[in-house]
Amino acid sequence: MAYTDKVLDHYENPRNVGRMDDDDQDVGTGMVGAPACGDVMRLQIKVNKEGVIEDAKFKTYGCGSAIASSSLLTEWVKGRTIDDAAKIRNTEIAEELGLPPVKIHCSVLAEDAIKAAITDIKKKRGESSETAQ
Amino acid sequence: MSLQPANYFELFSLPVSFQLENTQLEVAYKKLQSEFHPDRVVNADDRTRVQALQQASMINDAYATLKSPLKRAAYLLKLAGIDAEEHNQLHLDEAFLIQQMEMRETLASLIGDEDLEGLDAMKDSIDKEKTARLASFEAQFTASHFVEAKSIYNQLQFIYKLLDEIDKAEEKLLDY
């Protein structure tokens, strides 16, 4: 199956690969996985006091589409508020990357990861985690 | 001749159970394979030949499904009415995912160091985890604890994938 140029670009030059200190009170970590393909994804956001995502890092062990989905997502969430970032839908990611139907679940994984990271930072700050739905 | 088993286990006259006698499966498979080989009906009408092909293909699918412990586990869950592939992040244990991530990182650095011995050692330890989880799958499934069994099955999917990645890495290193 051929990857689109956008997927290849993110796969070959992934943005924001890395790791942040999980003990940092301003860092939210989302850890998710897809059993069917054995993919694991870690997505972290650094959130300032105003609730704006200042930085985002990810590490994904999986296929090109999963790497591209998480890479794109880190670019998108930077500068957004966490409430705004929580509204990103996997369909937007899939559309931007031109993912074929069989790879849609990779974008779902990325959406789950940002939701999990937001839930984590809210939990750290003692806020309710209702937003991550 | 027509084959209409209730399930793959019945096809090979095996009990519906995770525990499986490999030789029994092999013998039953070889027997069915020769009995239903499409070559036997090469001169028959179209309908018979198509049916023979379908049966041969079902026999092969059934064999592949029961032979692999992972596929057998998924198949047993399906027979119990559980969709093994359906999953929700909330059902995945976070500590397990963190551990998987760490193992992937370890694997990446072993590959970077071209450390074949390290890869072997890692494979041994993951193999042990696999064996232990297969045993607990069997225990939970046999006790009809399907939710727990499914959760172990999902973990096994990651473990099999990891073992696969280790194999691929070793093959690549040995090719040098």
Kindly summarize this structure in a few lines.
Chain A is an alpha+beta fold and 133 residues long.
Averaged pLDDT of chain A: 92
Oligomer: heterodimer
Biggest interface found: A-B, 14 and 20 residues
Percentage beta strand of chain B: under 5%
What's the N-to-C terminus distance of chain A?
A: 32 Å
Report the average pLDDT across residues of chain B. 92
Task: Describe it.
The complex is a heterodimer of chains A (133) and B (176). The model of chain A has no long low-confidence stretch (mean pLDDT 92). The N and C termini of chain A lie far apart (32 Å). Chain A is globular. Chain A has one domain (5-121): Sufe protein. Chain: A (Alpha-Beta Complex), CATH 3.90.1010. Helices cover 41% and strands 20% of the residues of chain A. By secondary structure, chain A is an alpha+beta fold. In chain A, strands 1-2-3 form a three-stranded antiparallel sheet. With 176 residues, chain B is mainly alpha-helical. Chain B is 72% helix and 0% strand. Chain B contains seven helices and no strands. In chain B, helix 4 (69-79) runs parallel beside helix 6 (116-142) and helix 5 (94-112) runs parallel beside helix 7 (146-174). Chain B is globular and about 60 Å long. The model of chain B has no long low-confidence stretch (mean pLDDT 92).
Give the helix/strand layout:
The complex is a heterodimer of chains A (133) and B (176).
Chain A: H1 5-12, E1 27-34, E2 39-47, E3 53-61, H2 64-77, H3 82-85, H4 90-97, H5 104-124
Antiparallel strand pairs in A: 1-2, 2-3
Helix pairs in contact in A: 1-2, 2-5, 4-5
Chain B: H1 8-11, H2 22-35, H3 46-67, H4 69-79, H5 94-112, H6 116-142, H7 146-174
Helix pairs in contact in B: 2-3, 3-4, 4-6, 4-7, 5-7, 6-7
